[in-house]
Design goal:
One of its GO terms (molecular function) is methylenetetrahydrofolate dehydrogenase (NADP+) activity. Pathway: One-carbon metabolism; tetrahydrofolate interconversion. NADP(+) binds at residues 162-164, 232. The chain is an alpha/beta fold and 289 residues long. The chain folds into 2 domains: 26-110, Leucine Dehydrogenase, chain A, domain 1 (Rossmann fold); 137-270, NAD(P)-binding Rossmann-like Domain (Rossmann fold, 3-Layer(aba) Sandwich). Helices cover 38% and strands 18% of the residues. It is built from 10 helices and 11 strands. It has helices at 6-22, 40-56, 71-82, 102-108, 120-127, 137-148, 168-176, 196-200, 252-255, 270-288, and strands at residues 2-3, 30-36, 59-65, 89-92, 157-161, 185-189, 205-208, 225-229, 233-236, 244-247, 259-262. It has a 6-stranded parallel β-sheet with strand order 1-11-8-7-5-6. Strands 3-2-4 form a 3-stranded parallel β-sheet, with helices on both faces. Strands 9-10 form a two-stranded antiparallel sheet. The longest helix is centred in the C-terminal third of the chain and has 19 residues, at 270-288. It is globular. The termini are far apart.
């Protein structure tokens, strides 16, 4: 079993980006972050993104709004950033409060600045295999992990657990596209799938993005499977100072002995998401030039 080290792979991408940004003369890429409310996970994610941007040499601007911000006020800020030639990428940190529709908000971001890849235009470009669009950062990170770990996808059976707009659907589209990595036969499973273990046992590559701790057990996979665990779940653990630990959607101890390759949680897909956001921001900057 080979552990896929997402930290190391993300680090190499960040080093590549740092060299590329360092060689730029004049203006540097700029990304704007919008955070609504003080959700602790959102605060931590945005801080991590700011630190990574700073390391690479990408400028970042943070726009904070209270939980009760009106849609009009939030959209006015997005419109201002859309119109600002100095801003190359715009990231809206999810989750948003209940009274603001996420899809409508993501679609407010200009497609050329939508470095998160959530705008309908960019999702449509992914469907059409038009490489000029932006791909959502987590699925893009999964593809990089697969590519840089030497996992063969062509002709393989990829099973994606989860059908979210943010991970499951784009990951499935990337795996079935006419490209490498890609050219796979893809099955998407979700909460309504019948005989789920029967399906997951057919997977050569399993992408687990279902948001349920330790959901995939040892009897749900075949020997030699490559496992990409996208889940980040908090489970109570009195032995930890924080009172919890992070686990994936895959029961690591039971699945890893059967896997040829597997990502850990934490330290697998997570770091890749931030690296790909920076990659998209540099692409947006270059397109704007």
């Amino acid at each position: 079993m080979q552990l896929i080290d997402g930290n190391a792979i993300a680090e190499s991408i960040i080093e590549e980006l740092t060299a590329e940004v360092g060689a730029l003369e004049g203006k540097k890429p700029t990304v704007a972050f919008i955070r609504v409310g003080d959700d602790p996970a959102s605060v931590s994610y945005v801080r991590k993104k700011e630190r990574t941007a700073e390391r690479i040499g990408i400028e970042s601007r943070l726009h904070l709004f209270p939980e009760n911000v009106s849609k009009e006020e939030l959209f006015a800020q997005i419109d201002a950033l859309n119109g600002d030639p100095d801003v190359n990428g715009i990231l809206i940190q999810a989750p948003l409060p209940k009274h603001i529709d996420e899809t409508e908000t993501f679609n407010r971001v200009a497609p050329g600045k939508d470095v998160d890849g959530f705008n309908t235009v960019n999702i449509g470009k992914l469907c059409q295999e038009d490489g000029s669009g932006f791909v959502a950062c987590t699925p893009a990170g999964i593809v990089e992990l697969i590519d840089r770990s030497g996992i063969e996808t062509e002709g393989k059976h990829v099973v994606v657990l989860g059908r979210s707009q943010i991970v499951g659907k784009p990951a499935a589209l990337l795996m079935m596209r006419k490209a490498v990595p890609g050219n796979a036969t893809v099955t998407v499973c979700h909460s309504r799938t019948k005989n789920l273990p029967e399906v997951t046992r057919q997977a050569d590559i399993l992408i687990a993005a279902i948001g349920r701790p330790n959901f995939v057990t040892g009897d749900m996979v075949k020997d030699g499977v490559a496992v990409i665990d996208v889940g980040i779940n908090r489970v109570e653990d009195a032995s930890k100072k924080r009172g919890y630990r992070l686990v994936g959607d895959v029961e690591f101890e039971a699945v890893s002995p059967k896997a040829s390759q597997i990502t850990p949680v934490p330290g697998g897909v997570g770091p890749m998401t931030v690296a790909m956001l920076m990659h998209n921001t540099l692409r947006a900057f270059k397109a704007a030039q």
